[in-house]
Amino acid sequence: MLASQVSTQVAQEDQLRADMYDYLAAFLSGPPTGDLIKKTISLKSDETELGVGFNALARIAKTQNEKSATSEFNALFIGVGRGELLPYASFYLTGFLNEKPLAILRKDMASQHITRAPNVFEPEDNIASLLEMMAGMITGRFGEPARLEDQKQFFNRHISPWAGHFFSDLEGAKNSVLYAPIGAIGRVFIEIEQEAFRMMAS
Questions:
Q1: Long-range contacts made by residues 30-37, C-beta under 8 angstroms, separation at least 24?
Q2: CATH of range 12-199; options 3.30.70.20, 3.90.1300.10, 1.10.3480.10, 3.30.450.40
Q3: What number is the average pLDDT over the span 103-110?
Q4: Distance from C-alpha of 141 to C-alpha of 114, rounded to nearest angstrom
């Protein structure tokens, strides 16, 4: 969705955070490709809550292919008229699309030099786009890597208030099979980020 690629060295732990944001965004921006499914099958993790989610995802991915994953993605997010879930900040925070949270986001995007790609037409407060923005801020995709304080402000304003709720809904959605562990992973990761930012000095 987003413009401007800049290669910048970042700390390993920050690169891992960015990779997680990008990984979740890859599943939520469109149906997963066969290559993404194959990579997911090979995942092996530990017995932490996050690791359990990845191990479950790898097991389920073995039963999937591009066709089944696309069908599930469409049922969850596209549907006839609309999908089971509406993954937009405005909807989760106000009950309507294209509301004040989107206007605030657009101002904050401008301040971070983040622009929407010309071939993308859906609102920028889609969960996948917000995850991509966080990854880009961490790695310097839009210029220099954002200061941790700026990351915290963006996360607390645009992701923290609703993303955990969205991922819980995704985890329990009736059409979720492959996406149920994606929901669990996303929910736990958002909790980890919330706690890390909470521990930062104000």
A1: 30/73, 31/66, 31/69, 31/70, 31/73, 31/74, 32/66, 32/69, 32/73, 32/178, 33/66, 34/65, 34/66, 37/61, 37/64, 37/65, 37/66, 37/69
A2: 1.10.3480.10
A3: 96
A4: 9
User: Which residues make Cβ contacts (< 8 Å) with residue 64, sequence separation at least 6?
Assistant: 37, 177, 178
The tens digit of pLDDT for each residue in 111-148 reads 989 998 787 778 999 999 999 999 999 999 998 999 99
At 33-82, the pLDDT tens digits run 999 999 999 998 899 999 999 999 999 999 999 999 999 999 999 987 89
- Cα separations (Å) of 28 from 32, 72, 152, 186? 8, 12, 22, 11
* Closest by CA position to 134, among listed 194, 53, 50, 73: 194
Domain ranges (residues) in the chain: 12-199
* Percent of all residues in the chain with a pLDDT value above 90, rounded to a whole number: 85
Model confidence, pTM? 0.93
How far apart, in whole angstroms, are the C-alpha atoms of residue 72 and residue 61?
Answer: 12
Q: Residues, the chain, total?
A: 202
Residues in CB range of 173: below 8 A, 6 or more apart = 76, 84, 85, 179, 180, 183
Cα angle, residue 17 at apex, residues 135 and 69 outer, rounded to 5°: 75
